[in-house]
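#struct-help
A.M.: can someone run this one for me? Single chain, 145 residues.
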Amino acid sequence: MIKKEKLAKEILEVFPSFIKKIHRGVVESLGIPPSQMSAVMILSEKKSCTLGCLSKEMEVSAPTTTGIVDRLYKSGYVERVRSQKDRRIVNIALTRKGKNVIKKIHKTAMKKWKIISNILSIKDQETHIRILKKIFKGLDAYHSK
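D.P.: on it. Structure tokens below:
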């Protein structure tokens, strides 16, 4: 097997476990499933968006997104706001409760990063960030084609 293929296979084996370990404390402490947490984080970044936009960002079907938004709405994390320009358009936005969840997510993430920072040297952390940024940039370029 070519070295690049071997490394790719190893990354694909390790990465899902990494994500699960990072999410573990966050999901448990907040009581929000990963799909809802993802939607809340996207809405935090965008401030508000339509169901179609959220569906595209989450890379899931519209019916799946509708179910996620319905559960977030029932829990009081999001609100539906009709557009002033076109009453047919409904935007999804975080409520105060949803914004508080974002603060808790960031706080829990910082706790996780403190654990990581005790494991990795400053140089390793800087390398990690540099590599992640390079990967994000490459993936953005790939997806914009």
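A.M.: thanks! The mean pLDDT is 86.
D.P.: also worth noting: The first strand starts at residue 48 and ends at 50.
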